[in-house]
Structure of Outer membrane lipid asymmetry maintenance protein MlaD:
Amino acid sequence: MAESTTEVVAGGAVLAAAVAFLVYVGQSTGFSGGAGSYEVTASFRSVEGIGIGTDVRLAGVKVGSVTGLSLNPTTYFADATVSVQQDVALPVDSAILISSEGLLGGNFVELIPGGALENIEPGGEIEDTQGAVSLISLLMKFVGGSASDDTATP
C-alpha cells in the first residue's frame, strides 16, 4: 500500500512539472488562444534578431508578440505581423522599431504611440518602422571611421 501511494505522489509531481513546463513554453513563445488581441502588420528593412514569439512592448511593458514573419517578394522587405492586446489602442501615426535590451541582451519589438486621434484598425499597417541595427556594423563603422581620421591628420 505504501509503495502505491509513493508512486501516485511521484506520478502527480511529474505530471504537475509537465503541465508547468507546457504553460511556460506557451507563454514564452507567445502562444495564446487569440482572444483579447488584434493583429497589425509592418514592413522592415531587416528583422535580424527577432522571431515568432518575440515580445512586443509599449513603454517597457509586454503588450503582445510577433506572430508572423515573411519576405515580401516585391519590396524585399520583411513583413512582420504582431499581435497586440485588445485594450491597447494605437494611433495611426504610431511607430514600431526593433530594439535591443543591451549589449548582451536579446531584441524585442517596441511600439511608440503617435498623437493622431484615429486608431489603427485590426489588420492595419504601421508605416513608420525602424529595423534592427547591427552592432557589428556599427563597430566596424566606428573602427573604420577612427582609422581614416587618424590617417587624414598630418
Remarks:
- The longest helix spans residues 2-28.
- The beta strands are 37-44, 55-58, 61-71, 78-85, 95-100, 107-112, 125-126, 128-130.
